[in-house]
Amino acid sequence: MSQARIRPEGDARLRVEGDLSFYSVPALQQQAAPLFASAGTLDVDLSGVERADSAGLALLIEWMREARRLDKALRLLNMPAQMLDIARVSSLDEILPLARD
Q1: What share of the chain is helix, strand, coil (3-state, %, to 5)?
Q2: What structural domains and CATH numbers belong to the chain?
Q3: Own/partner pairs for 67-74, CB < 8 Å, 24+ apart?
Q4: Distances (CA, A) of 34 to 6, 38, 57, 82
Q5: Binning pLDDT at 50, 70 and 90, where does residue 41 land?
Q6: HSE-up of 76 (CA within 13 Å, CB side)?
Q7: pLDDT at 89
Q8: What is the crossing angle of helices 25-38 and 54-69, to 10°?
Q9: What confidence category does residue 100 fall into, taking pLDDT thresholds of 50, 70 and 90?
């Protein structure tokens, strides 16, 4: 299992790396809170995600809600195929702000 982390890349881009799982999501949510508060528009690059489960998707939904609450634009970039497959099964791909980089 790879340690998950969020790495800021400039003012409006966050790179997520590692495994998004039940175990890593709470810490990632805490790491993201101040980053969401400071940026106007957020691009979240998921290309560094190695593995994800449903908790990882729940984190993305929470980030989407937080961005709406703060009236900020959010784009999810480079979602890994495994994660996108999970999103499609539950039709979350239709509501998540997915974009290509």
Answers
A1: 40, 30, 30
A2: 5-99 (3.30.750.24)
A3: 67/36, 67/42, 70/36, 70/37, 72/36, 72/39, 72/40, 72/41, 72/42, 73/40, 73/41, 73/42, 73/97, 74/41, 74/42, 74/44
A4: 12, 6, 20, 28
A5: confident
A6: 23
A7: 94
A8: 20
A9: confident
